[in-house]
Write a structure and sequence with these properties.
- The complex is a heterodimer of chains A (597) and B (190).
- By secondary structure, chain A is α/β, with parallel strands linked by helices.
- Chain A has 21 helices and 23 strands.
- Chain A has a seven-stranded mixed β-sheet with strand order 3-2-4-5-7-6-12.
- The longest helix of chain A is centred in the middle third of the chain and has 25 residues, at 192-216.
- Chain A starts with a strand and ends in an 8-residue tail after the last strand.
- Chain B is of the alpha/beta class.
- Chain B has helices at 15-28, 76-82, 114-119, 130-137, 143-152, 159-169, 172-188, and strands at 3-10, 32-37, 47-55, 68-73, 86-95, 124-128.
- A six-stranded mixed β-sheet of chain B has the order 2-3-1-4-5-6, sandwiched between helices.
- Chain B is globular.
- Chains A and B meet through helix 8, strand 8, helix 11 and helix 14 of A and helix 1, strand 2 and helix 2 of B.
């Protein structure tokens, strides 16, 4: 077949399909999201969004134990959520092939931390592959399944953002299919806890066998340079590409399988050169293992930072001393273009509302609404990880803090918010929770979830009813409010805070980027300048479409004149929030038609 | 020899689509190609930068600072932000178009003369009124194709390959408009 241009994520999906995978699950997370999105377009494989990564992992694990090839993809922090399953799975091992893909994010381009998930492979005693470009991304997935089958073990494949989101050429192959393996009941194998002790030793034996395999694995090979170097380079992943770009001369030991390592191959390689650079991004995962064997001529993190991305210019500088040109853009003013809530985003209404309630502390969560912790809102006061907000609010309450409430998005609530809410009910908390329901998983690109009523293919399915759910776990106060009507949201939240028990306010408004919202005709709003009293309340919504007018207003001669508001009709989408907060009601639709209700 | 290009602009201007079209053209002519950009939180109005490299064998998907042959800047401020990626003598093709940032988190104001500033640096700065041309053609969104037409003069890729990729990649009902925009871009720098 002719080569096709694919992103790393698309190539991984292709690899999954070619490997004959029958079941694949994931929870959206940048930079891994597009793998499942892409896989959903292939036939003969069930691809789905699960409510969180642990559920996705367990489902895929079930499918693999039952006898079909299964796949789960996560962003790096997603593997933390699934770690409970991941750590124990190798004890029983798998029946059919099982691969978990982790997409890490050095440089935290869209993540809350940098986390080198290669350590998870060592931690769980699971083999690890690291593709370095799109072709390898596609090819390493069937290889991972071969290893999984050969050693009856889950396999971890790790990529980083630069591979996941880089397009390159891929030569596609055909799909191989396997008949389902029988599931033979064998409690000694599949009922792990009583026999964990019995599994522990054999797991080490499996690792020894995998070490032998690593020596022969075609993904680990020496690649000759021009020969004009007295040093060697050991590297893996996309950093191989960076290093080869700037270092054409030395021989490379390019590692595609990085746990367990091919010890003899590495020792032989190191013995051939005066010095060997271990060039790896993030943590010294390879270096620590090689130095542990007593190899003395290896240089790694002494030269190559573990902070952020290990860009090619850093490698060139550390080895050749070449200095990249400095960024001269700061010689003149260059205002940043930071991420912001979209024009028409319902979260803007919720934050505007919460900012009207004095004296509250807001624990927050992960999503587009994490921007609520930044100007112009500064509404949210904590945010660390998925599903943390409700537990945090309950903890604040137990620590004696008054008027703390949690904000959490709909997808995040289903991912990790239900259990802490149940816990607050059970333990007698009075936690107030605002579910910001925008009917999608917004930040990762509008994926459907268990609360949207649609599956990964956009087909109708059952839909969680948040109110019924909350009441069923014992929440006695549940109110709905329109996110674009601050008076509604504010009234409901004030009542919720006063309520003697856990209380939930569902602040509703659809994400402007979901297809049905995008398809709706947009009518911009305008300010009737003569009626504007320059109160500034519409500015407080933080909407970029609301500009300061050159016209001013003052109520009396003693007051300073203040600018009136002006709406940019080219970018306003008519969400109605500014009109809803305007006291003299001088913000109206450009077509003069009534709005609201 | 590897051709190193950088496309810079603002989310919503079509930077990613234009990069992908170029990558497809290079691939169709048998080059090895890598193209990538950061896309995280779904958002419009953020700075977008895309790296495109093609040649006999391309390793790094990222350009090195000081290595880029041609930068295509869809917006003036974004040209300034990324110009240090150019090699000395490199070409900047800049759309003479200003998109105001939202000043929600910053008090830094838009520079007075970003194009003049770049002309003080050792680059060849060429200006195209792509947005204006696109408006004249009836749709501001095809400014990205005007830009692509302009940059095509600086890349050794065949006219018929550009044409066949545009035919594949652009929906039929917008094809003619996009082809005209591309042609206008080619003429703009003559």
């Amino acid at each position: 077949m002719t080569k096709q241009l694919m992103s790393g994520d698309q190539a991984l999906a292709r690899g999954v399909w070619e490997a004959g995978v029958v079941f694949a699950a994931s929870y959206p997370g940048t930079p891994a999201t597009e793998i499942l999105e892409s896989l959903a377009h292939y036939p003969d494989v069930h691809a789905q969004w699960s409510v969180n990564e642990k559920v996705a992992f367990d489902e895929a694990m079930g499918a693999a134990i039952a006898g079909v090839r299964a796949f789960v993809s996560v962003k790096h922090v997603g593997l933390n959520v699934a770690a409970d399953s991941f750590m124990v799975f190798p004890y029983g091992g798998t029946n059919a092939g099982f691969v978990v893909l982790s997409a890490d994010d050095p440089g935290t381009h869209s993540s809350q931390n940098e986390q080198d998930n290669r350590y998870f492979a060592k931690f769980a005693k699971v083999p690890l592959l690291e593709p370095s470009d799109t072709q390898e991304a596609k090819d390493f997935i069937p290889l991972a399944y071969q290893i999984s089958d050969l050693f009856a073990t889950p396999v971890l494949v790790r990529v980083t953002m630069r591979l996941a989101h880089t397009k390159g050429l891929v030569e596609p192959g055909a799909r191989v299919t396997f008949p389902k393996k029988p599931f033979v009941k064998d409690n000694l194998k599949w009922v792990v806890p009583p026999f964990a002790k019995a599994h522990r030793g054999p797991l080490e034996n499996k690792l020894r066998a995998l070490e032998q395999y690593a020596e022969e694995c075609p993904a680990n090979y020496v690649e000759k340079g021009t020969g004009n170097a007295d040093y060697g380079v050991i590297t893996s992943g996309v950093v191989y590409q960076y290093a080869r770009e700037v270092l054409p001369d030395p021989d490379f030991l390019k590692l595609g399988m990085t746990f367990p390592l091919p010890k003899q191959k590495i020792l032989d390689f190191c013995a051939r050169y005066d010095q060997v650079y271990v060039v790896e991004e993030s943590e010294p995962f390879l270096e620590e293992q090689i130095k542990y064997w007593g190899v003395r001529n290896v240089v790694g993190k002494e030269r190559f930072t573990n902070v952020g991305e290990l860009l090619p210019e850093i490698i060139a500088q550390q080895i050749h001393g070449t200095v990249a040109p400095t960024d001269f853009s700061k010689e003149i003013p260059t205002p940043a273009r930071p991420p912001m809530l979209c024009i028409g985003c319902p979260h803007r209404g919720t934050f505007t509302s919460l900012n009207r309630i004095p004296g509250i502390t807001v624990t927050g969560d992960i999503g587009c609404y994490t921007l609520g912790g930044l100007p112009p809102y500064n509404t949210m006061n904590t945010s660390f990880e998925m599903g943390g907000s409700i537990g945090h609010a309950y903890g604040f309450e137990r620590a004696g803090e008054q008027k703390t409430l949690a904000v959490i998005g709909d997808s995040t609530f289903l991912h990790g918010g239900i259990q802490p809410l149940m816990d607050a009910v059970y333990n007698g908390g009075k936690t107030t929770v605002v579910i910001m329901d925008n009917r999608t998983t917004g930040m990762t690109g509008q994926e459907d979830h268990a609360g949207t009523g649609k599956d990964i293919h956009g087909q109708p399915t059952k839909k969680v009813d948040y109110e019924t759910l909350c009441r069923a776990i014992g929440v006695e106060f549940v109110k709905h409010a329109n996110a674009f009507r601050p008076e509604e949201v504010t009234a409901a939240v004030r009542e919720a805070i006063k309520f003697d028990g856990p209380a939930v306010v569902i602040s509703e408004g659809p994400c402007v980027l979901i297809p049905e919202e995008k398809a709706k005709p947009k009518v911009a709003f305008t300010v009737i300048a003569e009626e504007c009293i320059a109160c500034g309340l519409c500015f407080h919504t933080g909407c970029p479409a609301i500009l300061t007018s050159p016209e001013t207003y003052r109520a009396s001669a003693s007051q300073k004149p203040r600018p009136k508001a002006l709406i940019d009709p080219n970018i306003c989408v008519g969400c109605t929030l500014c009109a809803a907060v305007c006291p003299p009601e001088c913000i109206v639709r450009v077509d003069g038609k009534p709005w609201g209700a | 020899m590897t051709h190193n290009l950088l496309f810079a602009g603002v989310g919503g201007q079509g930077v990613v689509l234009a990069s992908e079209v170029l990558a497809l053209v290079a691939a169709a002519e048998g080059y090895d190609v890598k193209q990538g950009e950061v896309h995280g939180a779904a958002q419009r109005g953020g700075a977008v930068v895309s790296h495109i490299r093609f040649g006999a064998r391309v390793y790094s998907p990222l350009n090195l600072r000081g290595q880029v042959d041609v930068m295509l800047a869809f917006e003036k401020l974004e040209a300034v932000r990324h110009a240090h990626y150019l090699k000395p003598g490199g070409v900047i093709i800049v759309n003479d178009h200003r998109i105001e940032p939202t000043y929600l988190n910053t008090t830094v104001k838009y520079p007075d003369d970003p194009i003049g500033f770049m002309k003080t640096k050792p680059f060849r700065v060429l200006t195209v009124n792509a947005t204006e041309i696109a408006r004249r053609l009836g749709n501001e969104r095809v400014a990205s194709l005007v830009m692509l037409g302009a940059v095509s003069k600086f890349i050794p890729l065949k006219a018929e390959t550009w044409d066949s990729v545009l035919r594949q990649r652009i929906p039929a009902k917008f094809l003619e408009l996009n082809q005209r925009a591309f042609a206008e871009g080619q003429r703009a720098l003559q």
